[in-house]
Write a structure and sequence with these properties.
Residues 34-150 form the RGS domain. This is RGS13 protein. It comes from Ardeotis kori. The protein is mostly helical. It has one domain: Regulator of G-protein Signalling 4, domain 2. The protein has nine helices and no strands. The protein has helices at 7-16, 25-31, 35-40, 44-54, 58-71, 76-91, 103-112, 122-142, 144-155. Helix 1 (7-16) packs across helix 4 (44-54), helix 5 (58-71) runs antiparallel to helix 6 and helix 5 (58-71) packs across helix 8.
Length: 163
């Protein structure tokens, strides 16, 4: 079985990484209502990340989630440290997990990285959110991955993946 079709294997691998596979049918069905519901649900971001790995674009959700955490940092010293890590991981040209953002957004971050503010990644995060919402999210909903997950929960009477 190829890695792209073994969706259950991916869920269990995720479980081994500390992600509960006790996702409910109700939550999974809500994901199809909007990208916002998927990304703000309890297990949605983790399941979506597993799917994005099959598309080789999981850096998008990783960056988006890292930005959400970054915005909550109150210490300026920690903010500088985390901003530099975000920059070297996702923003700088040839970064190991380089995200697809436009040149003006990249240049603005480069200008502001010495004295990073709470909002210095907002534009890049907005761009990545739009990429995911417009591109990979519709494919996710149509994917065998999502369809099989939904079907397995619909046919499993106890409303969770694992008994």
């Amino acid at each position: 079985m190829s890695p792209n079709t073994c969706w259950l294997c991916k869920i269990f691998r995720a479980e081994e990484n500390g992600i509960s596979s006790k996702v409910s049918l109700e939550e999974v069905l809500q994901w199809s209502q909007s990208f916002e519901k998927l990304i703000t649900s309890k297990y949605g971001p983790m399941i979506y990340k597993i799917y994005l790995k099959t598309e080789h674009s999981d850096e998008n959700i990783e960056f988006w989630l890292a930005c959400e955490a970054y915005k909550k940092i109150t210490s300026q010293r920690k903010r500088v440290s985390v901003a530099r890590k975000l920059f070297t991981s996702y923003i700088q040209p040839q970064a190991p997990n380089e995200i697809n953002i436009d040149s003006p957004a990249r240049k603005a971050i480069i200008r502001n990285i010495q004295e990073p503010t709470q909002s210095c990644f907002d534009e890049a995060q907005r761009i990545i959110y739009m990429h995911m919402e417009r591109d990979s999210y519709p494919r996710f909903l149509e994917s065998e991955f999502y369809q099989k997950l939904k079907h397995s929960l619909q046919t499993n009477g106890n409303n969770s993946m694992v008994n």
